[in-house]
Amino acid sequence: MRGPGRLIPSAPGSGDRRRAGAAGFTFAEVLASMMFVAIVIPVCLHGIALANKVETIAARKANAVLLAERVLNESVVTGSWQTGAGQGDGGTEWPGYRWSVSPENWTKDSMRRITVTVYFWVQDQEYDVRLSTLVEEAQTS
């Protein structure tokens, strides 16, 4: 009777006996699986690194928008944009960020466009976020 764990006789006189149900991988199968792993692991690690970079950029852009909104509101309320381009940094609240304010003529009506650009670095590459609003020209006098 054959079953798992029972010895199966081989051809008479060969002296080869093996266990039924005992299986193994061939050398070619082991090499193929190692090649598959060697290809898949670097691709997965690259994907993880890319996802981490995108997450970092998104978080820093969100902070940059908050800083740009604050600087833009402050410039409009105080009228400091009228003196020309201004610049600064995020200070202790937003370290690693710098900003600039640039007023420009608006082609329609008597308006001026004020743009705040916030710059920041992620993995040796500089990114920026721009936020603009329109202000009546009458406020400049």
Number of domains: 1
Stretches where pLDDT is under 50 for at least 5 consecutive residues are none
What value does the average pLDDT take?
Answer: 85
* Category by helix and strand content: alpha+beta
For the termini, the CA-CA separation is: 106 Å
- Strand content bin: 25-35%
The biggest beta sheet reads: 4 strands, antiparallel
Rg over CA atoms, rounded to whole Å, is: 34 Å
Overall strand count: 6
The proportion of residues forming helix, as a percent range, comes to: 25-40%
> Order of strands side by side in the largest beta sheet?
3-4-5-6
Q: Name the overall outline.
A: rod-shaped
> Which oligomerization state do the chains in this entry correspond to?
single chain
The helix-strand sequence is: EEHEEEE
What's the total helix number?
Answer: 1
Summarize the helices and strands and which ones pair or pack:
Elements: E1 7-9, E2 17-19, H1 27-78, E3 86-89, E4 98-105, E5 111-122, E6 125-136
Summarize this structure briefly.
37% of the residues lie in helices and 30% in strands. The chain has 141 residues and is an alpha+beta fold.
Features:
two-stranded antiparallel ribbon, 37% helix, 141 residues, 4-stranded antiparallel sheet, rod-shaped
